[in-house]
Every structure is written in structure tokens, then in C-alpha cells.
Predict the structure.
Amino acid sequence: MSAETTIESLRRRHYSLESLPDAIRIPALGLRRDEEVKPTEDATVDDIAFAILVLDAECDAAYSRLGALRKLHTLARQKGALGSDRVVDAIPVRKEGV
């Protein structure tokens, strides 16, 4: 049996760290032109801060898509669309110049 890693130990000892990733993505910044993937175990406090920025941007994009899909669903239902209807057929699109 292999020895427990530091990250595995943190996950086991702290409930709120169960989702701690094995590695983090650090965006290209300043002189560093390429994104870097680094084991969480080797990350500095600044590395974690930059990884948070990456995840925050991903969450913002996901929430924007979620909001748009919810709005599309609501608009279609308000127009009387049923579950098997194509959503784009339920919502009229204005033509330019009309």
C-alpha cells in the first residue's frame, strides 16, 4: 500500500478540503507566457490565488450560460412550448430592419 500524500491527508482531516484538486492551473501572467499546471502540494499561496482567479472566471462563464439557458427555457414555456418542442421554434426572432 502506498503512503498517503499530503493532499490526501488534508482531504481526510478537513471536511471542507474534500474537493481539493491534485493539481491547479495557474494562468499565463507577466513574463510567464504559458499557463502552468502545478501539483497543489507544490503550490505557493500566490499560485493558489491565481488558480482561484482561473476557477472564478470559469464559474462566471458557467453561471452566465446557466442564466441564459434558464431564460430561454422560461421564454419558451411562456410561449406555450411543450417538452418535445424545439425551443427556437417557440420564441420568435425579430428580423433586422423590421
User: Anything to note?
Assistant: The mean pLDDT is 91.
